[in-house]
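Subject: sequence -> structure tokens, single chain

Hey, anyone have a minute? Need the predicted structure for the following. Not urgent.
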Amino acid sequence: MSKFDRRDFVKATGVAGIAALAGCSGGGSGGEGEGEGETSTSSTSSGGETRLSWHAGGTGGTYYPLSNEFKSVIEGHTEYGVQVQSTGASVENVGSLHSGDADFALIQNDIAYFAKNGTGIDAFQGNPIENLMGVATLYPETIHVVTLADSGIETLQDLEGKRVNTGDLGSGTQVDALQILNAVGITQEDFQEQNTSFSQAAEQLRNGDVDATFTVGGWPVGAISDLATTEDIRIVPIDGDARESVKDAASFFADDQIPAGTYSGIDEAVPTVAVQAMIATNAGVSADVVENVTAAIFDNVDELSIKTDFISADSAQDGMSIELHEGAQAYFG
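Reply:
Had a minute. Here:
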């Protein structure tokens, strides 16, 4: 099976990705207030408090609520204030870290690797993001391919000719969706692509505007849970030869499964694949800030309620795909 075919990727994500790399981090799912373009480690509030800008993802995924839990922990154990911003997630967040609009962000380990090495997708091809630095890995980012139970879609191959939402334009979800589809022989010419946030994609499914959606996130994903309370859903398995083709096409995909009972009506475990969520920063953030933020999170994991089966200091370098920031190195040793 050939590697990810990039020939049409610039059509889908080039504008969004390159705009983000230039510092234009609009779009996505909106923001949470004014002044988000400031490099917050070099600015303070009137009370002298250091303000950190933390870029998350769409409100219907896992990044956003988890980032708000990190905010609470950091503010509870340091003198820093944290502003969490909803975004289009991984690719956009890399651009915001590159430009200094974000001090910290959640991204996928595959997108981090592509960005740091200037490869993989056209948004980064030949344009390595050298100031992108790793902090910690967190949990598996599970690939969910969701459809309605009566759609007749039972395998990845059944998506050919269908209306498929592959996630926000330029997001890590879109990158993964196109890689997975290409790995089983479905190119962008073979289906009707739509791009929205997780929550909007769920509404499209509910309203019959798309046939299937890709969502990448730690289960349970809120938007899917909400959809499953009102609709009978099916999660399309990625298994057998299709799974092997996906893993052959991109080495950062690993076997995973969505446990039975994770979503209403899903009574058996669903085999799939996953990447890894991680915290990233940029080289311009001071070592003291990164070390203190890292310590606040990983010394107080018991104060979190999301993905606590996975997030720990012991596993925080598993799957780390880029160089660590010196502040993270100081904490993890």
